[in-house]
Amino acid sequence: MMRMLRRGDSYKNSLLPQLNASSKSHYVDYAIHASIFNSQQVDEMQYCVENGITSFKLYMNLGGEVGHVYMDMEPGKNLIQEERVEVTSEIVEKVVKNASSLGCPVLVHAEDYEECGCGIKKPRKKSRWT
């Protein structure tokens, strides 16, 4: 089983509490991909590897109109966290380079966020979505 860890904050602050909570509540074998949403997280990829995360996830479809994500909740809290993200070409390039040097795979949602945004705008104009 795979878990996609989605956090908008520093992994140096949130990774260990997430791993600890997972170890107490997951009853199947699992691995975690750390999603990278910003430059700070790019710089923390080595830290993630040092703490057992050996693969990363990129969402190239997150930017512009579709630049929001529901992040993983903090352990012990029941509050949805929505954040704006802008996954740029620069972030993608840095993640791939870092992952290569760390010997880690990167899973990529390779949709173009501008195309995704157009696909959202059309139904909204027809009043299908509010």
What does this protein structure show overall?
It is built from five helices and six strands, in the order βαβααβββαβα. The protein has one domain. The model has no long low-confidence stretch (mean pLDDT 82). The protein has 130 residues and is α/β, with parallel strands linked by helices. A four-stranded parallel β-sheet has the order 1-2-3-6. Helix 1 links the parallel strand 1 and strand 2. Helix content is 41%, strand content 20%. GO terms for molecular function: dihydropyrimidinase activity. This is Dihydropyrimidinase (DPYS). It comes from uncultured marine thaumarchaeote SAT1000_04_F07.
- Please tell me what the overall shape is: globular
Multimeric state: single chain
Number of helices: 5
Rg is 16 Å
Which runs of at least 5 residues are low in confidence (pLDDT < 50)?
none
Strand content: 15-25%
Distance between the termini: 35 Å
H-E order = EHEHHEEEHEH
Structural category: alpha/beta
Q: Would you tell me the overall average pLDDT?
A: 82
Protein name: Dihydropyrimidinase (DPYS)
Organism: uncultured marine thaumarchaeote SAT1000_04_F07
EC number: 3.5.2.2
InterPro entries: Metal_Hydrolase (IPR032466)
Structure, briefly:
One of its GO terms (molecular function) is dihydropyrimidinase activity. This protein is an alpha/beta fold and 130 residues long. It is 41% helix and 20% strand.
